[in-house]
Design goal:
Oligomer: single chain
Number of strands: 0
Shape: rod-shaped
Order of helices and strands: HHHHH
Structural class: mainly alpha
Distance between the termini: 90 Å
């Protein structure tokens, strides 16, 4: 107590630079933790959306729609229909790639037909 009397008053933690530095560092750690939590949450949401887009039923529907749009659906053999049905379950990424390739090939071929719009 004698030491405090010598410096001229009551201890004020708001005026203590060490305490303020510690509080600022703690606040910054908390902000960093919150930012990291938000980043992780966004990544989890993106992964969930990606998985939903790769759900077998969604992919199967996309493949069948693309095949119908290209005019190929009605001409599929039984084995080809089975393969189209199984592909989304066995390899979702391959089903997505095949669907994209079919759509691009159809769009490219449409530009080659006489009277097709450029």
């Amino acid at each position: 107590m004698h030491l405090l009397a010598d410096v001229g008053g009551v201890y004020d933690p708001d005026a203590d630079a060490v305490v303020q530095d510690e509080l600022a560092a703690a606040a910054e750690r908390e902000r960093d933790r919150q930012l990291e939590d938000e980043r992780r949450r966004q990544e989890e949401e993106a992964e969930a959306a990606r998985r939903a887009a790769l759900a077998p039923d969604v992919l199967r529907h996309a493949l069948l729609s693309t095949l119908a749009r290209t005019g190929l659906l009605d001409g599929l053999s039984e084995d080809e229909r089975v393969a189209v049905d199984r592909l989304p379950d066995s390899d979702p990424a391959a089903a997505l790639a095949v669907n994209a390739l079919l759509a691009r090939a159809h769009e490219a071929g449409a530009g080659l037909r006489p009277g097709a719009a450029p």
